[in-house]
Amino acid sequence: MTTLAPWASHPERSFGRLHQERTPDDAGLRGPRDAFQRDRDRIIHSISFRRLRHKTQVFMAPDGDHFRVRLTHSLEVAQIARTVARALGLNEDLTEALALAHDIGHPPFGHAGEDALEAALAGQGGFDHNGNTLRALMKIDSPYPRWDGLNLTWETLEGLAKHNGPITAPGWALAECDAAFPLDLARWPSLEAQVAAIADDIAYDNHDIDDGLRAGLLTLEQLLEVPVVARGWAQVQARFPGVAHHRLIGELIRSQIGAMVNDLIGETRSRLQGIGSIADVRAAGRCLVGFSPEMREDERLLKRFMYANLYHHPRQLQAARAAEGIVAGLFALYHADPTQMPGDWRERMPEDEPARSRHIADFIAGMTDRYAIARYRASVGPIDLPEGF
Ligand code: MG
Predict the structure, then answer these.
(1) How far is the CA of 367 from the centre of ligand 1 (A)?
(2) What single DSSP character describes residue 142?
(3) CB-hemisphere CA count at 13 Å for 100?
(4) Taking the chain, what is the end-to-end CA distance rounded to the nearest angstrom?
């Protein structure tokens, strides 16, 4: 591994895990790995991670093999995040762990599924996918004999909890995790976490252009309304004169990822002047990993375009309504008749609220798109899904 910069997270200086692991019978049994390598590997081997392959990124249960899903999105985030982490002398393993796990708490059908669970839990504290990432990794996904959860290090849990920055008013799920293992929620997280967070944006800003074009919901002509895309397109055409447009889309997108990554590294290096340790990072009181003001504005305009034209496209909204119906229908079914849940979930069903509703939401939030559709069809009834499912 390359030498870590003074502002990096160090596995030997980790604040540790909630449950003490080293016992005479398991010390050193599973390969020469440090704490953050172990965290990344636990995430990759988890059921929650495998389920990401059938969870919506933008397109719900897509028929097309070439669309992103949460799994391939997370791999692209990890690729971008590792590039930036290495350039800045950060810990790549921690960065990769954070990138791979950042979307594990998403329910089926992406934000539509989240909205439906939020509504179903309205009287019971609501639902938030980021809080649910912590809940999934600390309470629900339990592959080990002695404790619930993956028993990840403080630094990995902290980075996931603060994926969107410091938190002053945590929802119930995150508050429970924080009560068990205090994560210093009100302060900025490590640079590794800040890198994973912005790599998430760089990944989807760009791959959603590709998927939107592939789905026929966006056109190149429309995209050229966005200044950063128009400039990139002019450069690509100048570099490859006479090449057919469809052969240049990939080049447009990879060049745009490269421009964002280079801007991010340059701007972040300048913000890191005077930062001599991770304690300085946490005490800075602001985000140290970010775009230059020019790129931030370019990226804001791109996102605004994508919301208006792709994420809120009439076909996407129609699919979202159908998805909300599936999640709401399953929640109502299990609430009225817990015998419809599979054995283990049925047996552990709490009697009282809010635990009862939250338990049902745990079960539904863990579902993949296709499992939710299958359960709905088997237990509730037929459902007409718009094209794209
Ligand atoms: Mg993401």
Answers:
(1) 17
(2) -
(3) 24
(4) 43
Whole-number Å distance, alpha carbon 378 to ligand 1 midpoint, is: 31
Which tokens is 325 given? 């119906």
What's the CA-to-centroid distance between 100 and ligand 1, angstroms? 9
* Cα of 102 from ligand 1 centre, angstroms: 6
What stretches of 102-248 adopt beta strand conformation (E)?
Answer: none
Q: Ligand 1 centroid vs 196 CA: distance in angstroms?
A: 9
Q: Count CB neighbours of 44 within 10 A.
A: 13
Query: CA–CA distance from 379 to each of 34, 136, 204, 347, 350 (Å)?
Result: 46, 25, 35, 18, 21
Threshold 0.85, pTM exceeds: yes
As beta bridge partners, residue 69 has 56
Rounded distance from Cα 106 to ligand 1 centre (Å): 9
> For residue 274, how many other CB atoms are within 10 A of its CB?
7
Element (H, E) at 323: helix 314-336
CATH class of this structure's domain 35-314: mainly alpha
CA of 96 to the centre of ligand 1 (A): 13
Long-range contacts of 347-354 (CB under 8 A, 24+ apart): 353/123, 353/124, 354/121, 354/123, 354/124, 354/125, 354/172
How high is the pLDDT of residue 388? 61
Distance CA 46, CA 49 (A): 5
Domains of the chain: which residue ranges? 35-314
pLDDT digits (tens, 9 = 90+) for 94-140: 999 999 999 999 999 999 999 999 999 999 999 999 999 999 999 99
d(CA 373, CA 63): 14
Percent helix, strand, coil in the chain, to 5, is 60, 0, 40
State the distance from the centre of ligand 1 to the C-alpha of 77, rounded, in angstroms. Answer: 7
**Residues flanking ion ligand 1, Cβ below 5 Å:** 103, 200
